[in-house]
């Protein structure tokens, strides 16, 4: 996400193009560039959001050999095309995997439930969330620029079941758009392609009256809401505030442990109101961060893990001038239901985050993904992908 002026950000739980120039014969003019292939007729006829899954040929058997339950490599492509007159914000697609698939990689998406890859997705299917291209503009907005109206996600994984062939491409059971406000019929199959055309429930094509408000999504409801706000931004680092709010009328959270995944090699330099479970900067010293920040004293930094785990501070640190003195901090990880005590239903901490190229500017910012939170003797919480909403501080 990019900053809009000096407004802070909030998250709620909420090509390299290579041109190869070859010498041309002076006797023969260069052949004209071929036109791109026409889109499938199903996509061209869809005036909403077109979603498809294409199986990329038969997969080879992989070890171990087990004739009764053989594993095969599979690859496929999920394509989301916005043919509507309204921008599609934070696209989400459900893929109904049905052959005990294990998804190993997805190049332009993350799992919406925050699970890291590889992940078992073949029991109940999975929801893909767009990252880093989460929003798809309209053809009207972009003069038909497909790089802004369409995204294709390449999937690679393993699956079980019958061997794939031309008559059995091992397609998912179904595919559909999971964004609120859209209706999708049953998906259709043609050869190695599964597709569906989804329409907005509200077909009014009136543009938003406030363009600034249209940049943000409505806030979602949930038992826990996690807000990630940028308080101040600089070329190389920014100050973020994280607030965890309990909205459940009965459930409490004890000794919470919050985790996420950095997507661009960021690292935590300093914190107030919470602390990393592991204080270790060795991954920075021996990694790309150490090569870039040659003059930095990494002994003063806190954590360089790609997936850090953060814990709350004890009450004895509430008035600590170095790491405390922050409202709603330092409660030993206890977050009560608002019905029990609204003043103790939120935990807050701040952290200084350093960035890496190519994001070394005030507006370059990529939100962390794959959030998760656990507590002692607490119910399991499942976090959705972050959404860009209006600021809360």
UniProtKB/TrEMBL annotation:
Transferase recorded as keyword: no
Keyword Protein transport part of the UniProt annotation: no
Keywords in alphabetical order: Glycoprotein, Signal
One of the record's GO cellular component terms: membrane
Lineage: Eukaryota, Viridiplantae, Streptophyta, Embryophyta, Tracheophyta
InterPro entries in UniProt: COBRA_pln (IPR006918)
Organism: Linum tenue
Signal peptide (UniProt feature, chain positions): 1-27
Name by which UniProt lists this protein: COBRA-like protein 7
Any Pfam family matching the protein: COBRA
PANTHER family, sorted: COBRA-LIKE PROTEIN 7
Family, per entry: Belongs to the COBRA family.
An example Gene Ontology biological process: cellulose microfibril organization
């Amino acid at each position: 996400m990019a900053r809009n002026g000096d407004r802070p950000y909030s998250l709620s739980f909420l090509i390299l193009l290579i041109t190869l120039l070859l010498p041309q014969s002076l006797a023969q003019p260069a052949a004209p560039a071929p036109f791109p292939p026409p889109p499938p007729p199903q996509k061209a006829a869809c005036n909403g959001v077109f979603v498809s899954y294409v199986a990329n040929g038969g997969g080879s058997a992989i070890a171990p050999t087990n004739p009764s339950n053989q594993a095969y490599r599979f690859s496929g492509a999920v394509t989301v095309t916005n043919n509507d007159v309204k921008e599609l914000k934070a696209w989400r697609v459900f893929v109904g995997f049905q052959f005990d698939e294990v998804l190993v990689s997805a190049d332009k998406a993350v799992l919406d439930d925050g699970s890291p890859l590889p992940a078992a997705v073949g029991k109940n299917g999975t929801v893909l969330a767009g990252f880093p291209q989460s929003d798809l503009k309209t053809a009207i907005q972009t003069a038909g620029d497909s790089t802004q109206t369409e995204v294709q996600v390449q999937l690679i994984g393993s699956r079980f079941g019958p061997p794939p062939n031309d008559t059995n491409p091992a397609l998912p059971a179904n595919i559909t758009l999971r964004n609120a406000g859209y209706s999708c019929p049953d998906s259709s199959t043609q050869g190695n392609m599964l597709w569906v055309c989804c329409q907005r429930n509200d077909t009014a094509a009136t543009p938003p009256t406030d363009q600034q408000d249209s940049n943000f999504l409505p806030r979602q409801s949930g038992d826990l809401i996690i807000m990630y706000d940028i308080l101040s931004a600089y070329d190389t680092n920014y100050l973020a505030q994280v607030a965890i709010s309990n909205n459940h009328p009965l459930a409490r959270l004890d000794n919470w442990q919050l985790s996420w995944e950095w997507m661009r090699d960021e690292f935590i330099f300093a914190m107030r109101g919470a602390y990393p479970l592991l204080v270790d900067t060795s991954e920075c010293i021996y990694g790309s961060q150490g090569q870039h920040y040659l003059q930095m004293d990494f002994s003063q930094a806190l954590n360089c893990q790609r997936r850090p785990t953060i814990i709350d501070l004890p009450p004895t640190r509430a008035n600590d001038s170095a790491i405390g003195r922050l409202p709603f901090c330092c409660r030993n990880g206890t977050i009560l239901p608002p019905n029990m005590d609204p003043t103790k239903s939120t935990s807050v901490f701040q952290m200084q985050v350093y960035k890496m190229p190519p994001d070394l500017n005030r507006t370059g910012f990529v939100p962390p993904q794959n959030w998760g939170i656990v507590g002692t003797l607490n119910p399991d919480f499942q976090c959705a992908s972050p959404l860009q909403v209006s600021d809360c501080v």
